[in-house]
Design brief:
Blueprint: H1 15-27, H2 33-63, H3 68-97, H4 110-123, H5 128-147, E1 150-153, E2 156-159, H6 160-163, H7 172-188, H8 190-210, H9 216-223, H10 231-260, H11 286-300, H12 302-313, E3 317-320, E4 330-332, E5 341-346, H13 350-369, H14 382-396, H15 407-440, H16 446-460, H17 471-475, H18 482-486, H19 492-510, H20 512-524, H21 531-537, H22 546-564
Parallel strand pairs: 3-5
Antiparallel strand pairs: 1-2, 4-5
Length: 565
Amino acid sequence: MSRIFIKPDLKINQWTDLEPYVNALLSASITSEADFEAWLKRWNELCVVTSEDLAWRYIHMTCDTTHEEHKKSYLDFVQYIQPSLTEATNALNQKMYHSGYAETFNEAGFALLRKQIETELQLFRPENIALQTTLQDLEQAYSTRCGAQTVQYNSKTLTLQQASVFLKDNNSEIRKSVYELIQKRRAEDEEFFNQTLSKMIDLRHQMAVNAGCLNYRDYKHRALNRFDYTVTDCFTFHAAIEQVAVPLYRKKEHLRRQKMKSTAYMPWDVSVDVDGLPPLKPFKDGSALLDKTIACFNAIDPFFGECLSTMKSMGRLDLESRIGKAPGGYQYPLYESKVPFIFMNAVGLHRDLVTMVHEGGHALHSFLYKDLNKMAYQSPPSEIAELASMGMELISMEHWSVFFNSATDLKRAKSQQLEGVLDTLPWIAAIDAFQHALYEHPTHDHAFRSELWLNLMNRFGNTEVDYSNHQNDLARKWQAQLHIFEVPFYYIEYGIAQMGAIALWRNYKQNPKQTITAYKTALSLGYTQSLPELYKAAGIRFEFTASYMQELMDFVWQEYVALQA
């Protein structure tokens, strides 16, 4: 992006580096639609530049949580720049909204942007800025503690992600010993994570009350701009999952247990191959993972392969797990340079292939909407963002032969992917329902939290597994879900998108070319249309009723059963 407003060599070291640009925008005279359009362009540039600056601080910190300078750089922005930037954004929102031109400005997507800004203005409270800063400190502390979790096995120090590879070992004693090592390590941090979440809930509830909301759940649903569905719709979705998806999930687990022919189905048995085959190894290292994914994406659409090749040439990927690296995986859009960054913790397993194509789907989205003229249009809600990624998981499956030399391994990989789809909706419902209850009862204690989670596991969980001697492991299982700590209520979107992804995959199997054309069309729209309109552009329905879920899950089950033959 060529800058027209902010100096090309600007270094953001403190708030005073940005303040002159904010003051220029606030004092600017807007007396015509042309003035308004030019003003919006300058404001967008400020958003783009500050967003990318913060992005790189976050990327550097998560790539090495032990690097004190990276940590300090990120926290300096969060503590000393972002609070003033938040206040400035509210003032700029006010100026735009009351300019006299916002109501009549005719640009695709602007009506949605105006609606988002109206919500921001309604929820903004100056006293919440300091609370948000404290929350970000707590989120960073959670991430750092997760990054420091290691176990000693076979005289080696392993991250929990690296250790989890052994949960696929065919030797049950190895699986059991590693499972117990992992759980012992998680238990050491159980109280810290409980206390951290309690502090977060207190702060988030106070933010909600300050903004005139009954609880943080209601506040967050508004803050997430959920214009196309309600809290009640979420509960309806939970019920549909319980009715449709949970029985299939448990049926699949029952079949696994039968195949294993063991007297008990234990927590360390859920990831092993039931036929006694070794874990799938679709790649040897991060470089091979990337090259094979590029080949896979090329087979779907040459443009998709080009996107990843561009990221490779620019060094926009950090793929392998290592000590000191933050957990999880993400794709971070970089709005000024227009080429995103992918972060993950690969250890050579099949699930890493799935993570790579998932984050690759997000990256394709970033490339497809990058020419839209406002950052807000390039910031689609998660329900469509996760459709891009989860849809790519299933579509790419038709081209996984680049990862597997044998037909048997390819069949196993597809089967495992569909097992993951069958697992997904029940887990999503449990995580979302858990958060609803936490924030509806903000003064709850840790015992309430554990009992709540165990009840949800009875409702949505894997009842085939024998947890009789491992209830504490099950009761704290939610602590590994970083979304609860770092991005609360960002989870049901995965369920909505999973439904859409299944519909996309079904379309792709019937008409690949037409489906990819529709997929690219929908993603290129960014957030310039409503969710139902974006899903329609992708050739699918924005719907999560029990009847529609039954239709889609029946299709998944048929495909899964066919792979077992």
